[in-house]
Structures
1.
Amino acid sequence: MDVTALAIPDVKLITPRRFSDDRGFFSETYNAKAFKSAGIDCDFIQDNHSFSARKGTVRGLHYQSPPFAQSKLVRVLRGSIIDVAVDARKNSSTFGQWVKTELSAKTGTQIFIPQGFLHGFVTLEPDTEVAYKVDAFYDGASDGSVKWDDTDLGIEWGLSGAEASLSEKDAKAPKWADFASPF
Ligand SMILES: Cc1cn([C@H]2C[C@H](O)[C@@H](COP(=O)(O)OP(=O)(O)O[C@H]3O[C@H](C)C(=O)[C@H](O)[C@H]3O)O2)c(=O)[nH]c1=O
């Protein structure tokens, strides 16, 4: 398993080993002991799976407020995405900064996003499926969002607002300037 830190070091990329043969491959996509030794020591208690039919589907930027804040371990089962994490930790030297990476079923690379970050992704292909583990249960009342294409954040998504498919919730998410971080 290869683990590398992104420019915001608490956000990490994990590429599990694939054992390939003429049938295909086998891979341990999560192993608590191996992840703990790599510095990722979360008690994941919920698995999520989303399917996005259209290329250019944007889901995010989302978070849950404490005590339901979530760390996330994200991977792509089919297709590919650009995954984005925004540091929303008020005392962080990288507060308001973001990192992005491409995740695909082809590589199997995963991203670990700790509590205190906003999370979002845009799909790069139709029929993209994303699976992710979280370490806190869903709590709708704690669910929050920030505008995905906020100009202060300046995230380079690689598509314009006109090209993006959004939920109603995401389309009316507040700006970063109006976001009072709970982290
Ligand atoms: C997240 C979640 C949602 N739901 C229900 C609530 C809604 O009625 C429905 C769709 O939820 P939402 O539109 O928030 O789904 P996404 O836009 O994919 O949101 C997710 O996408 C971004 C990328 C994230 O990081 C979060 O995990 C999550 O916010 O599923 C649940 O029942 N449990 C859950 O854990």
2.
Amino acid sequence: MSMLPVLISREEVMRLLQNNDLIPSLESALGMFSKRNGTEVIQPVRTTVPLQKYNGFLGLMPAYIAHEDVLAIKIVSFYQRDKDSDLSAHQATVLLFDPERGNVIAVMDGITITEKRTAAVSAISAKLLMPPKAEVLCILGSGSQAISHYEVFTQMFSFKEIRVWSRRRERAEQFARAVQGPVAVFSSVKEAVEGSDVIITVTMATEPVLQGEWVKPGAHVAAVGACRPDWRELDDALMRKAVVYVDSREGASTESGDIILSGASIFAELGEVINGTKSAQCEKTTVFKSLGMGIQDAVCAKLVFDQWKSQQ
Ligand SMILES: NC(=O)C1=CN([C@@H]2O[C@H](COP(=O)(O)OP(=O)(O)OC[C@H]3O[C@@H](n4cnc5c(N)ncnc54)[C@H](O)[C@@H]3O)[C@@H](O)[C@H]2O)C=CC1
Ligand SMILES: O=C([O-])C1=[NH+]CCC1
């Protein structure tokens, strides 16, 4: 007998997935992952299929977390689209399985999950690594991730000033109008970055947009874009002067151009800081290089499904 999976739409995922629930669940999963107990968390490095002809990539992100008994896979595509495209850069679906029997129990939108969990993990990096009394937040990029990062960061922290820069100034202005609070729009990356305590890079850049010489000593950078081995968002100077943290060593060493091409060494995974086995060097300039992990999607899919079930 086959049972049909439930379908959970983007709107439902948006309603069911709350940032407050996300942070502790993601922290616990990151900590568990970094213990490298091979039966507790299983997450191979993302398999990526390049689609050269279309300037796109298809990524497969399976994960199993034993103590949560959650088995899921996210299928995500990301395309460098024309600016007038009506589709967002990332399209994603998460399949949630019954781990005991191997059947799919839910098929849900993965776009919102990707936006929210990525921003939540960056916020965890900031919580652990930003300088004390951080007052100025700077966001480079103005797309979907810029919005989700703004939402989580303003929910979790109280910055005195929030700045945004985007390649096209009108997009940065659009961003400033779309979000809830005041945002200062900058036309130059250098001016946006100088004096900032926390800098989030959420661009589709393939060459460095952020230079180390502009970054205030002791600042924290959450670097979210440049997820291909030949793509960059940060320059060598920044990668070499900062203490570098990652979500997964294997993922970062395979996929991050900022790490591979700069030759920077990885100091720790966020999970190691959460577990207390590596230090949070907040007094130094820190970079958190995020690539995204299947366990993050799996945790979210479980939260969404449990919420959905509780409302039936
Ligand atoms: N680390 C992770 O877990 C995840 C990372 N990402 C990455 O985050 C980045 C942002 O994603 P979205 O906001 O969804 O994309 P988006 O397409 O909504 O926004 C991209 C932004 O980058 C800007 N941009 C494009 N090309 C640029 C260039 N050459 N130089 C400077 N800015 C440029 C655009 O103007 C826009 O502001 C992408 O690199 C994406 O692959 C996305 C999802 C998860
Ligand atoms: O984790 C993720 O979903 C992605 N990381 C980079 C592109 C998509």
3.
Amino acid sequence: MSGRNTSPANRVLVLNSGSSSVKYQLLDMADRSRLAVGLVERIGEESSRLVHTPADGERRERRAPMGDHGAALTAVAAELAADGMGLDSPRLAAIGHRVVHGGKRFTAPTVIDEEVLAEIERLVPVAPLHNPANLTGIRTARALNPELPQVAVFDTAFHTTMPEHASRYAIDVETADAHRVRRYGFHGTSHAYVSRETARLLGRDPAETNVIVLHLGNGASASAVRGGECADTSMGLTPLEGLVMGTRSGDIDPAVVFHLSRVAGMSTDEVDELLNKRSGLVGLCGDNDMREIVRRRDEGDARAKLAFDIYVHRLRKYIGAYTAVLGRVDAVAFTAGVGENSAPVRQAAIEGLEGLGLGLDTELNSERCDRARLVSPQYARVAVAVVPTDEELEIAAQTYALVRS
Ligand SMILES: Nc1ncnc2c1ncn2[C@@H]1O[C@H](COP(=O)(O)OP(=O)(O)O)[C@@H](O)[C@H]1O
Ligand SMILES: CC(=O)OP(=O)(O)O
Ligand SMILES: [Mg+2]
């Protein structure tokens, strides 16, 4: 089976397009190994940068302005081609795209055609930072190889099991339904993967395990997972609701919007921009990198301390709320950039929650480690876990399963 024409098409390219970045991985699904990983940052700026690392080669960095996600993906395709793994490679089975908003319709991974593209486009108003980037990525990939199957894996899909008492807002039913206003939830691929991995870490069946997952990246969300299914999650119609994030406010009184419009004369777009891009940690202290915030706080910076405290206070409220939603909690799992790396955030979030059965082993918590692990003491009733998320692997697995079936 080593001849060129007989090599199986078992590779999947995964594209995770954020508002100003693209993360990508090329995976071999025979052994789930990574053949290349990379990142394009600062898309839309003069200082765009691509970092590409093939599994068996040197890390390469390219700096050139990339105006949009199309230009970024074209540059990624060129890097892959230089390693003999271009988008026209017969070994490539499919491209899996992370698509942030799938609305109510997409409850599972879906092969992309014109109609699916149109539906993703229709959802742009409820995911303005994300769906346009996803669409550009998909269109460019299709132009580069029209024959290649493209699969959309939706952030919202995992949350479609939420019961209506969790997904419906308490507003007029007819108005809500006419405009598809409800809570959808996001980061679903991560919540699904991490809740399953947490059960595995505990040596338990995911179908009988209840987990609170705290996905703390730049965007951040919490979910209550009962027996492998989402019972509630903190993001809503859009990825703005819930936890305090890098640049997003999370929960606020909706009347803040009317107030800013009436009293400060701000337009709808201006308030939208304020809450999505100039709020959260950035709005509170000018920084959205948790490393920097903790460093400043430790040097006595009052604004950084307040930002940290507000971030953690919100997190603790959700831990309490989801303990009540689930009734019995087996584990709280921290994941994504902040969750996996910030021992001070984990400590402040769990400290004093003995009443909920939670505790932390401060030594285990401060160890650096990139594998899933427990950081709670043996005697704690509820386990606390740090579980690295792997959205790319999960997207590749779902994509590959779909194109093979
Ligand atoms: N060592 C670290 N300590 C604390 N926070 C970290 C560390 N590494 C990364 N982060 C945080 O993780 C965030 C990015 O998380 P990530 O999950 O990659 O987000 P996204 O996928 O939304 O880009 C950074 O903004 C930073 O705040
Ligand atoms: C949905 C969402 O917030 O995604 P990200 O964390 O990639 O911004
Ligand atoms: Mg992320």
4.
Amino acid sequence: MNSPADVWAMVLKLMEADMTATTINTWFDDAKAVSLDAKQFVLYTPSNFKRDIILSRYLPAIQKALHELFSADLDVLVLGEGELERFTAANQPPADDNFLPGTEDYTFERFVVGSSNKMAYAAARAVAEKPAHSYNPLFIYGESGLGKTHLLYAIAHTIHRTHPEFRVVYIKGDAFTNDLIQAIREGRNPEFRNKYRSADVFLMDDVQFIAGRESSQEEMFHTFNTLYEAGRQIVFTADRPPKEMLRLDDRLRTRFEWGLPVDIQPPDYETRVAIIKNKAIRRGINLPEPVLQYIADNITSNVRQIEGTVNKILAFQELMGESVDVDTVIRTVRDMCKDKAEFLPSPDVIIEEVAKFYNLDTDAIRGQGRTKDTALARQIAMYQIRRMTNLSLKEIGKEFEGRDHTTVMHSIDRVEKLMKTNPEIAEIIKDINANINAHYDN
Ligand SMILES: Nc1ncnc2c1ncn2[C@@H]1O[C@H](COP(=O)(O)OP(=O)(O)OP(=O)(O)O)[C@@H](O)[C@H]1O
């Protein structure tokens, strides 16, 4: 079935036969199709004056065009200023739990608190217990795998339990961007807006992904204002504080800083021990003290990695049915570290991530695409492959339809220079880097 926007484009085309282009431009330039079903077609124009003219003069023409398209008589509803929000709210499908993250593991009770995360934990709890009372927005930042998503889910679950009537919207920054692109493509902008702007609690994970993306930032700005003015709770997480998001709009940056920015640091030794104990005990296993200490001493920066190690050891213990000794643990931990050191991303993944970042096709990057963006994306991809793999210049050239090794060298040179003079490029490369590494997180 065609989208309402497609149908509206066809209606305009049909009406062109009976109307001048000026008439169409004057009365329909900012009209947008809102919805279409078997009985009704809904149109919106931001001006009440235009709505009245459309209704009094052009309704029969629209109905006639629709009849030609569908061989059926459809009701036509034309919405004016302020009516769109009411219409979408009234016609919205009942709030479902799709927006609510599924996992029950991520609760406050299962979050181990230590000096590195106690501020973030306390702020998240305060927000969950009294939404929109204390910190709004709450902005939690820190490196990957330190518990930001865990806290966000915990907020979602707590509020869902205490206020089942609240609409809790959870979305990742990149999913927001994708959703927006799709909504624009399908002419579903009002639906998109309504989905996010009608939230009682709005949780956005990894908001850094919207930085540098114009339409996402624009949408976020209005979403933020609507929610904030309506007194709704907003929480963001990101891998860095707002002031370090160089490609973020200033007006968003200031808003992100309005409430409480709070960081999560890598856990200290005591917290690491507590996390390991906690994960083991929940699986009904008591790890001997030296084992705990060995893991806590050697896996230091990332809770996700600690979890991975503990899971491996517990699986081993469950399989063998006996208590693990320190030697086995040492071998497991060494293997984990060795895997890390020896792992090299593949050129395919690197090119794929650069392409995704620039919204390009991988073929365009590998091949002959000549736009400014494609050329820069290609140079960045070459630079990243050189930096992240062991490939020679010649081998890198082969990845790009057999380009010469001097071309590769010049590209890498150019990116290195750009990184020194243009902080935005340095930031973009950092982002792409993180996305590439995310493929290999365990
Ligand atoms: N303090 C903690 N207590 C218990 N588990 C934790 C703690 N911190 C993190 N974890 C666990 O570590 C894993 C990684 O955490 P999480 O996904 O929340 O990280 P993140 O900061 O959102 O990372 P990313 O930025 O990569 O999404 C999860 O399984 C989470 O439950």
